């Protein structure tokens, strides 16, 4: 069903989730920080991640990862920031020099020592919000989700503590918004405060887009959960590429994680990287 670059599905609309084009990608063409998987596979079908346990019907990206080309870029990118719910962006908040100073500071040690115990009213949290305010505007005060790091060397990092297993590619379900209304759900802003790049991976179709591709234009997306729809899509289109974005230290990704299949990936991350997240409705500043 998929054509050459893997993103187009016969009889279906093109992907409805885009990467907001950065100045670097406009100036230099294909973005070296973006790579594409060869598709996805069942986490049960491969002996991966050193025997790490995945939950039922989990999917992970399938390598090798390849650089994007000009044809990919025409499908992947947009310059239009007017619909944040359909955009994934990487924004730079701190310069390399600022991050180097931060990593040598007492503040960094305190933050990673307290990690999840850092208060939303902490001065450093407010510094992050001030930096974010230069590029995005939250419509209401965002929720704060603490600081954390992920184990390295994993295809996907999200872990369900209730079952003690990794979940693989998934749609977030913080607010329980029905599948058909996920374009109205909050976005996630995740800032890399660590010393190495980390990687955000996602599939560039919305929950409704995956439902239409999997079940046709008739039917009600609300009849299934977002994760049931996502797993149906991955089962039907195993060669559909997953997009991997490199998020450098001092940068943040902004993504509609309640409306797309996604996860973090630490395969090429040498040491644990601390990050923090906010969730809210927002607009991009021009
Ligand atoms: Fe997630």
Descriptive account of the structure:
The chain is an alpha+beta fold. It has one domain (18-284). Helices cover 21% and strands 24% of the residues. The chain contains seven helices and 18 strands. It has helices at 23-28, 70-76, 96-104, 106-114, 123-132, 207-215, 226-236, and strands at 18-20, 34-36, 40-42, 59-61, 66-67, 77-78, 87-92, 136-138, 143-148, 159-160, 165-166, 187-192, 198-202, 243-247, 251-255, 262-265, 275-280, 282-284. The strands form five sheets. The protein has a seven-stranded mixed sheet. Strand 10 and strand 11 (165-166) form a beta hairpin. The protein binds fe (ii) ion.
Outline of this structure?
The chain has one domain. It is built from seven helices and 18 strands.
Structure characteristics:
286 residues; 21% helix; binds fe (ii) ion
Structural class estimated from helices and strands: alpha+beta
Flag low-confidence runs.
none
Distance between the termini: 38 Å
Order of helices and strands: EHEEEEHEEHHHEEEEEEHHEEEEE
Ligand set: fe (ii) ion
Number of helices: 7
**In order across it, which strands form the biggest sheet?**
6-1-7-15-12-17-9
* Beta-strand segment tally: 18
Q: What is the oligomer described by this structure?
A: single chain
| Beta-strand content estimate | 15-25%
Q: What does the radius of gyration come to? A: 18 Å
């Amino acid at each position: 069903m998929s054509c050459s670059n893997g993103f187009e599905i016969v009889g279906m609309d093109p992907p409805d989730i885009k990467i907001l084009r950065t100045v670097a990608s406009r100036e230099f063409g294909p973005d070296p920080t973006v790579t594409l998987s060869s598709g996805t596979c069942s986490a049960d079908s491969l002996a991966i991640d050193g025997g790490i346990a995945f939950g039922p019907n989990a999917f992970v990206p399938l390598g090798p990862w390849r650089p994007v080309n000009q044809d990919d870029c025409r499908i992947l990118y947009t310059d239009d920031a007017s619909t944040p719910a359909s955009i994934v962006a990487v924004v730079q908040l701190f310069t390399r020099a600022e991050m180097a100073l931060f990593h040598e500071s007492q503040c960094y040690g305190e933050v990673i020592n307290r990690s999840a115990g850092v208060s939303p009213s902490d001065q450093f949290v407010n510094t992050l919000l001030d930096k974010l305010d230069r590029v995005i505007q939250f419509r209401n005060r965002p929720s704060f989700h603490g600081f954390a790091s992920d184990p390295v060397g994993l295809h996907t990092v999200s872990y369900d503590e209730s079952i003690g297993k990794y979940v693989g590619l998934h749609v977030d379900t913080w607010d329980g918004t029905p599948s058909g209304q996920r374009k109205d759900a909050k976005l996630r802003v995740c800032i890399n405060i660590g010393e190495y790049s980390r990687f955000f991976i996602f599939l560039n179709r919305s929950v409704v887009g995956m439902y239409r591709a999997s079940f046709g234009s008739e039917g009600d997306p609300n009849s299934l959960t977002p994760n049931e729809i996502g797993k149906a899509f991955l089962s039907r289109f195993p060669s559909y590429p997953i997009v991997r974005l490199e998020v450098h230290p001092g940068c943040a990704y902004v993504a509609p994680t309640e409306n797309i299949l996604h996860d973090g990936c630490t395969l090429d991350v040498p040491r644990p990287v601390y990050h923090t997240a906010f969730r809210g409705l927002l607009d991009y500043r021009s």
